[in-house]
Design brief:
This protein has about 280 residues and is an all-alpha fold. The chain has one domain. Helix content is about 70%, strand content about 0%. β1 and β2 form a beta hairpin. α5 packs antiparallel against α8, α5 runs antiparallel to α11 and α10 runs antiparallel to α13. Belongs to the ELO family. One of its GO terms (molecular function) is fatty acid elongase activity.
């Protein structure tokens, strides 16, 4: 008798649909999520490797053109549009977190750390309902570039950390996905979780509804914590790459992740200290 929880994706790889193991939780999933096959989009991404590169080049050009165009103009007032843009990203991230975190917890409970970091993600989390939300996470890095548009039109300071983060995340996420990087779900869950709170905070700020008790330092601490875990995961990836020839870790991708998370950790710590702990200059009377 065949197992109803086992399905075959477009690459001919058998996987176990997560929601099938938890019927009560599975009732919250749509059928199209449970049956989702990520392979057609994955194949298309593999056939078009220059798309993220072109997007990043266009992003850089538009930043410079936008800042030049705004030099002699008054700042726009798109506060409400920006607020609902941030609300949309926050809601999307909350849903994404709710769809991917249970799978990660399930995998951590039933699989060893080695298997979580080494096994083919198309088997462990990249197909079916979780696979859909992992794929949506990767593709969401393109619309997230629009964040910078609001900074430019409002003539706010555009710091290096902002645009560097957007470019490197987009390139890394695309590369990780097309090379089926096993540790990806760790990064997906962390990023969804941080963005759920971060964009929600940006929405409240844009609408001038931030509770007085909420300290923005909390958001930065979340971000720094994400970078610390990212560095730890990549270091574990190097360990299994060196000690286990059957591990699916790709050296180049893991090196890129280590450099990316290491640089983010440095930049976010620098931002954190500069914003919250350096004494502010007193205005001259």
């Amino acid at each position: 008798m065949s197992d109803p929880c086992i399905a075959i994706n477009g690459a001919g790889i058998a996987y176990r649909e997560f929601s099938c193991d938890y019927p009560q939780l599975g009732n919250l999933y749509f059928d199209f999520e449970k049956k989702y096959d990520p392979i057609p989009v994955l194949d298309w991404m593999r056939e078009n490797p220059m798309i993220p590169v072109a997007a990043c080049v266009l992003y850089g050009v538009l930043i410079m053109a936008g800042q030049y165009a705004m030099q002699t103009r008054e700042p726009w007032n798109w506060r409400q549009i920006m607020a609902f843009w941030n609300l949309g990203l926050s809601v999307f991230s909350w849903i994404g977190m709710a769809r991917t975190l249970p799978q990660l917890l399930h995998n951590l409970y039933y699989m060893s750390v080695r298997d979580n970091l080494c096994m083919d993600p198309r088997v462990t989390y990249g197909s079916g309902s979780t696979g859909l939300w992992v794929q949506l996470f990767i593709l969401s890095k393109f619309p997230e570039l629009i964040d910078t548009f609001f900074i430019v039109i409002h003539k706010k300071p555009l710091i290096f950390l902002h645009w560097y983060h957007h470019i490197t995340v987009l390139l890394y996420c695309w590369h990780s996905y097309v090379t089926t990087s096993p540790p990806g779900i760790f990064f997906v869950v962390m990023n969804y979780s941080v963005h759920a709170s971060m964009y929600g905070y940006y929405f409240l700020m844009a609408m001038k509804l931030r509770p007085k008790w909420f300290n923005p330092m909390i958001i930065t601490i979340f971000q720094i914590s994400q970078m610390v875990v990212g560095v730890i995961v990549t270091l574990l990836g190097f360990y299994y790459y060196k000690t286990d020839p059957t591990c699916g870790i790709e050296k180049e991708n893991n090196t890129a992740a280590f450099v990316m998370y290491g640089s983010y950790l440095f930049l976010f710590l620098q931002f954190f200290i500069g914003r919250y702990f350096k004494p502010k200059k007193q205005k001259t009377v």
